[in-house]
Amino acid sequence: MRAAVLFEQKKPLGVEEVDLADPREGEVMVRMVASGVCHSCLHAADGSWTNVKVPMVLGDEGAGVVEKVGPGVKSVAVGDHVILSWAPSCGRCRYCVTGRPVLCERRPPAGCMFDGTTRMTLRGQPVYHYGTVATFGSMTVVPESCAIPIRKDMPLDRAALIGCSVTTGVCSVLNVAQVPAGASMAVFGTGGIGLNAIQGGVIAGAHPIIAVDVNDAKLEYARALGATHLVNGAREDAIEAIRRLTGAGVAYSFVAVGDTRAAEQAFEATEPGGTCVVIGLPPTGSRISIDPGRLVGPQRVLRGSSYGSARTFVDFPRLVDLYLAGKLKLDELITRRYDISEVNEAFRALAAGEVARGLIVF
Ligand SMILES: [Zn+2]
Ligand SMILES: [Zn+2]
Predict the structure, then answer these.
(1) Which helix (H) or strand (E) holds 223?
(2) pLDDT recorded at residue 50
(3) Closest CA to 158 of 170, 148, 166
(4) Which ligand has an atom closest to residue 84 CA?
(5) Ligand 2: centre distance to CA 108 (Å)
(6) 140 and 13 in a common domain
(7) How far, in Å, from the CA of 246 to the mean position of ligand 1?
(8) Domain limits for position 190
């Protein structure tokens, strides 16, 4: 199968014919239809994040059709349409059984299946699976808990985006913050995840929904997805602008960019009793600093969100239903489509802020 391989950080990816072994017990082989191009993969490639195993097939956001199933697989069958989840879960640990599978204690080792090996090899050497699912290939093998079946009338190219950015953004609002109707919110960073946090705000009935970014083109995407106010943080002080619009600050702020200053500003921009949800992960080793006096007395909440605390077997079909009902925008997110051979150009456009989402189509 054809896949984009990261051989070394800070170097372009190479497109290679990678050997893919059959699924073993509890594993599923998927023929990929499309893969989104995500900031997390860009960070793995550009060296922002360390401890990335190479060689590795990147990609954590995709959808396809089940091609083969290994022994013991019960939740999907050959021909099923699936969205891939980068959060494998055991289904039995204390987090899984209490509805927080994102915190599963029995994840497979990074880059591998549960048995600690890879299914991909190149010239006899193991190739690691980014985010377990490795969606930048025409085929992949994943643990059963990563293959979420969806209805067949859902277009698979648009379904791909639900695998990471849409779920992370929308579910950070619906599941993590549980924003009620009429609450004010601000989203710092209007890339793939921020735009979907804005959509989550629209679905929840939040108002106002303030988008903050330093790129006017990205702010226009935010408006198209439902932001009611736009703040360009390069031209004006974001905290002052938010206080001018809301009085004491927003009830909820979301940090959808891996930037420590944005996280500190988003915390400052909340009203007393408000909640700041940090989604974007800054480079390895970063620190954020906050004034404890603004945390304790005013009872602000600062919390993290991984994958929007998704329960993928519930949330993926829920998001599919919302799209098909016209309540979730996906077509508007896809700015450009690429062949896998254009993966480095897709990363360049993402880093330059030229796209809401780039989509690799197989
Ligand atoms: Zn991602
Ligand atoms: Zn578990």
Answers:
(1) helix 216-224
(2) 81
(3) 166
(4) 1
(5) 10
(6) yes
(7) 32
(8) 169-306
The pLDDT value recorded for residue 353 is 85
User: 285 and 192 share a domain?
Assistant: yes
* Whole-number pLDDT of residue 300: 98
Determine how β-strand 125-129 pairs with β-strand 56-57.
Answer: parallel
Same domain, 24 and 126: yes
Model pTM?
A: 0.95
C-alpha 220 to ligand 2 mean position (Å): 40
Q: What's the pLDDT at 282? A: 87
Who surrounds ion ligand 2 at CB < 5 A? 89-90, 93, 96, 104
How confident is the model over 172-193, as pLDDT tens digits?
999 999 999 999 999 999 999 9
Among 48, 37, 40, 59, which Cα is nearest to 9's? Answer: 48
Angle at 274 between CA 296 and CA 262, to 5 degrees: 95
Number of structural domains the chain divides into: 2
146 Cα–ligand 1 center, Å: 14
| Regions of the chain where pLDDT drops below 70 | none
Residues with CB under 5 A from ligand 1 (ion): 38, 40, 60, 164
Tell me what pLDDT residue 148 has: 98
CA of 74 to the centre of ligand 1 (A): 27
Tell me: do 16 and 132 sit in the same domain. yes
Indicate if 143 and 173 belong to the same structural domain: no
Ligand nearest to the CA of 98: 2
What is the amino acid identity at position 203? Answer: I
Answer for the pair 109, 128: CB distance below 8 angstroms, yes or no: no
**pLDDT, position 175:** 98
